[in-house]
Amino acid sequence: MRKTHQRQQNHQNPVDLEASTSSTADQTTYTNSSRSTTDSTSKGHHRRTSSLWVPPSRPIFHSPSQVFREKAENGGRILKSHPVTRWMFGNVPILPKQRVISPNNQKEPPLRYEHPNRKYCRNRISTTKYSLLTFIPKNLFEQLHRVANLYFIFIVILNMIIGAFGKYISVMPIAFVLGITAIKDAFEDYRRYKSDRKINHSTCRVWDASQQRYRKLEWQHILVGDFVHLSHDEIIPADILLLRSSDLNGVCYVETSNLDGESNLKQRQAIRAMGKYHNINVPLEYSPSEFNYKVVCEEPTNDVYKFEGRLEAMENGPPLPREFTILAKENVLLRGCVVKNTDFVEGIVLYAGNDTKAMLNNNGPRYKRSSLEKLTNRDILWSVAILLIMCIIGAIFCGVWLRNYSNSPYDTPFLVYVSRNSTYYNNHDRQYQFDPSFESFYGFWSYIIVLQVMIPISLYVSIEFIKIGQVWFMSQDRNMYYDKVDKRLQCRALNITEELGQIQYVMSDKTGTLTENQMVFRRCSVKGKDYGENINRHSSVAMELVASNLKSDEFASKSKLQLAALAQAAANTGRLRPSRDTNLETQLAESEKSIDDPIFAFFLVMSICNTVVVNAKPHEDLMDEEGAITNSRFGIEQDQEPTESTESTEPLENVLEEEDLINLDSAENSADTRSSPKNSEEFEEIELADISPESKNGNNYNGEKETRKGLASILTQRHSSILSNPFSKLKGLKSPFRRSVDKRASQSDVSQPPPLHSFYDSESPDELALVEAAREYGIRLLKRRFDDVVVYLRHSQKSLKFKVLHTLPFDADRKRMSVIIRENSGKKRVILLTKGADAAILPCLSADFLTSPEGEECVLKSQEHLTEYAKQGLRTLCLSMRIWTEDEYQEWREKHEEAELETTKMREDAILESVLRAESDLELLGVTAIEDRLQDGVPECINSLREAGIRVWVLTGDKIETAVNIAYSSKLFSPNMDLLNIGANGIAPIGDLLNEHLERIGRIREIEDEAVENHFGLVLNGATMGYCIDPHNLERFVQLLKSCRSVLCCRATPLQKAQLVHLAKNQLHGKVLAIGDGANDVSMIQGADVGVGLSGQEGMQAVMSSDFAMARFRFLTNLLLIHGHWNYYRLSQTILYFFYKNAMLVFVVFWYQIFNGFSAQVPIDPVYLMIYNLVFTSVPPLLFGCLDQDSSGDILLKNPELYREIGQYSWWSFWVNMVDAVWQSLAVFWVTYATYHNSTSDMWTFGHLLVCQLMFVNTFHLGLLIQYWTLPMFFSMFLSILAFLAICLLYNGFVTPNWTWTGAKDVPSMIALTSFSQFDFWLALIVTIVICLAPRMIVLVVKNTIWPNRIMSKRIRGDREEELKKKKEKDFTNCLVQCFSAPFRCVRFIFSSKTRKNQNIHVQ
Question: Which of 616, 741, 602 is nearest to 680 (CA)?
Fold first, then answer.
């Protein structure tokens, strides 16, 4: 085969085409341009990657009629559909706009500007907001949407006119803020650009019509109508229509986690029109040049679950049957998905670039505003009001003060007005005329400029940096790190970190959120008999018992071997094994293995009625770098030369795949029993195709290069007589085996068991649990294809094959799924297998079954078992079946196909009606019970949240009994809690029930003084919730919710979950946190104030829609009780500090106006005034907002009730800080006034002392707020003061009278050095600090001593306990030292006594 492709390539002489645009002739024949040179560097790449290939543009003198016609059609469609102009066209029908796609497979394609697909979007994407040319204007335009930025720009313009400050000095604050924000936006946009560039430069293989082969091409050059070849694990570059798959049935699997977050595999099917290329018996070679159809489909939409289209034959093309023209969503592969479990797929591009569904759904996260942000905006308005009041007062007193000199304004020395009689008078110099009214008006605007600092411009930038720091510290918390999946907390919304500290309601999903979502089969009920109540899980005794009941010792050993392999696989993967009832397994082993046997039928439904994918082998890329498929599974070229390989005696289990094994063993049996007609009808016959011994390393029937050795060797060892002579080559065969199956055969006697391991992948954990349980009991799903399914029976060592006629998938409305199969042997009956919730299956049972004694008893017992399982917290499903006659099936099939071919909007309704018609008259087989264990730490987490005053609501789709049991085990409900159940139907009955519950609560409230909500929990059914939120019952329902501590809503749909979140936000006026892990929780997460997504077993869609993402529910304790508490405390204190700091500076400047005639003159250097808040006092508040803690994390976890013990940011908090700012500003100004009273100091010296006092007082004020001192916090405050003093010395030392840009009339030269050398300066500084901070210090000491809050009490108690603990440890240590040293002291005493005695004797 390799030589064939080489000869084809040499014959075609592949080169990259080069298009020339130098002449009109070249434009019209650019596909036949010069081929004189061969570009060796682009070997294997598409011609569009060549720098010389440029799509020719439209000629200048090209006829514009076609353009006008297209514009007119689009304009007419818009006018007809627009609600304003719709009346002009009467009842004229509006035809939906459709996209007609012509394939790009012509050897001489039309010109680019004449191509039918020219108007469609190309595949290059760009998610950036800016370009090099548009960055500055567009970014400025976006930043001007902030009112504060507009305000400060207005101040700059005003100062340019009035000149209160230096014209350039006033630009510094707003330029700093805009510059920092622009840098941040540019960095984020650059990251998006790099991501887009990486995506656009990704490569895939695209059909080059001129070369008649696939060649590599960058994604950005792909056009609508191109043919794309993708291999295993390759990302899909555009929305393509699936034409061909490496699977013999045209099936492929994709992972859509990049699109909708679901990590499970989805099955896609090649279009029916290409079925001839997937024919198993007579496969045809495929080439994109043979696709002679147009694709007519809908315009691009963002609905990933919907697609409508059809095929149309091109001119002179072959006609298509109507059923082959219909296209559905199962035929489309969406951009961003990943090809899985498939060697390769090929398709035609339908939507490219920004028209793909992935890009249309890429709207970014929804913006949420926190309550603290709203309160901050309100207080900013109050700051504006204070500013206007001061400006009006200053303007009024300016006019009043000037009128005192109205008698002689031109003779007053400090007034610079010019008399009209003066020779210097100029009519244009209005400002030099004495006009108190004009001066008052002029002074108002001057005050606006001078006192602009009242609005904290640096607050917005500071808050953003603080939130970034808080998010970083949250993500680094080891207590919220889950090492099993290596996931930390992720923050996807920076603007609501402080909202975590104000949560009042937690709305949680159950499955996968509170539980593990790792389903394990535990119990079942078959035909009314319960199994699994008393089982010894994972017992070797059970294995021996079942093995002893098998028919032969050989089968027993093989069964035990497979059971041991299952145990080993479970140990490797960490999954729990299903529970096995030995009695049930024995009955299954002795059953008739027929659908008529209820036990066998029960396990057959468990094994087949699902969408589980069986993974059996690795996949590889079958296309080389030059675009040639090296191994085609659809045929062996006649001139292929086989190669030789070494023989091996490797065991057959390690060599063959599952299907190969079945075929091989069937071949053995057929070879041994060919003389028996009975056996030939009963089992499949496998004929060995002609193959030479040298071709053992050739292609296997899957089109892969054979890497497993020893296949021919094994065949030679087993069938030496059969393989004694080399086989002659058979044209068109690609596999060493050719299946010739007798249509009457349905099962094959497999003496050799299949491979011990099968790996399953499922969209639902429930389905996976059922399939694994069926495998554990001996009914193993072995292989699944589009139109057939194979199960292996461990007990009889045989396989059964069923033809799959239809699959009716699960949906939220029906709450069940079905599979229609046909037997391949015997009666060949059509059987409907259905599984679903009990509420969805029991109403669909047939009347004959319900009225029969056996059926009546089965239903009654099953309902009892359902209740029992639910009380144990197990998830239940009902399994059922229906056997159809051939006439019933054919009648239903015809109507179902008519519904599928429906092209109107009623298509979905018609299909649903057809499905409901099929899922009727069922026969109940039994009930399954699956365990979904609680996650570790869930009960403790919920209990901590409840102690913190947070009400937890659990919203689930499970049955009431199951949900209530989980609620008790998770401590949502306590044993002493009285449950209120709302189970009536109808508006009036629900209203009466609500009244009854409220009266009961009222009676208890009268008796007990304790909070009544601690006594009650509410159980709500999703079916009755619509009556509860009816306007007639809404008020009473809300009152009942307020009186209940916990709420459990069962059978809730995603819409109902979102409605409850909306109810809690708007009617209960609480802050809501919603947490979930699945796609059904997205609406609830997006509607809550804070949305948390868990990266669980149901994909990542909840994470993608959330504000915060984490791995386990128990992390919610740390997220709320610690980080939420800290974030709110830090940010609220920081915001209040900013308001205080800016207001104090403004008040100091305002007090100075009393002594300068309210002339808006500022004593502080304009440079200091403009950068004081942006530079000098910016770093410590930032660190304070990131690091400060009012209590340690351990104390907050041990005492959850401290969650709300925060200094709440309320309306009076702002005014308390304003009063403090007024007091401190008065102290600063009047101490300075007293220091320089009756002195010769100038204005700059006076102002320098003012700004130094402000700097020290603000810094020490922040020190009083700090409750958790750290080295970064201390050094930031110390270095800020040090840097301020150094800058003062440098600035005043270098400034000269030539520095006119500051706008100062008298440059403050050497002011700092002179002030620092005076004793009065430092004395005034110390006195000011004491006077300013004494009131706050006294209040804090008295409050924390006499009336400490609970946080301070816990801290004091903790410190005392720590000291007592250290003292006890010290005493214990001293005691141990004394005990150990006692013997030595005794010896020493005795020895010293003897020594003294001897000394006394010696003396005597």
Answer: 741
Q: Are residues 599 and 584 in contact, defined by beta-carbon separation less than 8 angstroms?
A: yes
Q: Are 875 and 766 in contact (CB under 8 A)?
A: yes
Residue 462: which pLDDT band, with cuts at 50, 70 and 90? confident
**Within its chain, how far is the Cα of 794 from the centroid?**
42
What's the length of the chain? 1404
Beta strands, E only, 956-1082: 978-982, 1016-1021, 1046-1050, 1072-1076
**Could you tell me which of 115, 350, 104, 54 has the C-alpha nearest to residue 210?**
104
How far apart, in whole angstroms, are the C-alpha atoms of residue 537 and residue 233? 38
Q: What is the pLDDT of residues 289-309, one digit of tens each?
A: 888 889 999 888 877 778 889
pTM comes to 0.68
Is there a contact between 754 and 712 (Cβ–Cβ < 8 Å)?
no
3-state DSSP assignment of residue 688: strand
Known binding residues for ATP? 509-511, 767, 810, 835, 875, 956-958, 1051, 1057, 1080-1081
Query: From the annotation, which residues make up the binding site for Mg(2+)?
Result: 509, 511, 1077, 1081
Residue 301's φ and ψ, nearest 5 degrees, are: -135, 165
Instruction: Please report which helix (H) or strand (E) contains residue 808, including its range.
Output: strand 798-808
Question: E strands of 635-787, at which residues?
Answer: 685-688, 737-740, 747-749, 759-761, 779-784
Q: Using DSSP bridges, classify how beta strands 779-784 and 759-761 pair: parallel, antiparallel or unpaired.
A: unpaired
Q: What pLDDT, in 10s, does the model give residues 71-106?
A: 666 666 666 666 666 666 655 555 557 888 989 888
Q: Which residues are catalytic?
A: 509
For residue 408 the two structure tokens come to: 């002689």
Tokens of 1183: 């660190």
| Distance (Å, whole) CA 1398 – CA 1404 | 10
What is the phi/psi pair of residue 640, to 5°? -70, 135
Closest CA to 1029 of 1056, 1048, 998: 1056
φ, ψ of residue 20 to 5 degrees: the values are -115, 135
| C-alpha dihedral, 607 to 613 to 615 to 620, nearest 10° | 160
Beta strands in 1150-1238 (DSSP E): none
Determine what percent of the chain falls in helix, strand and coil, rounding each to the nearest 5. Answer: 50, 15, 35
Whether 849 contacts 878, CB under 8 Å: no
Contact 1159, 402 (CB under 8 A): no
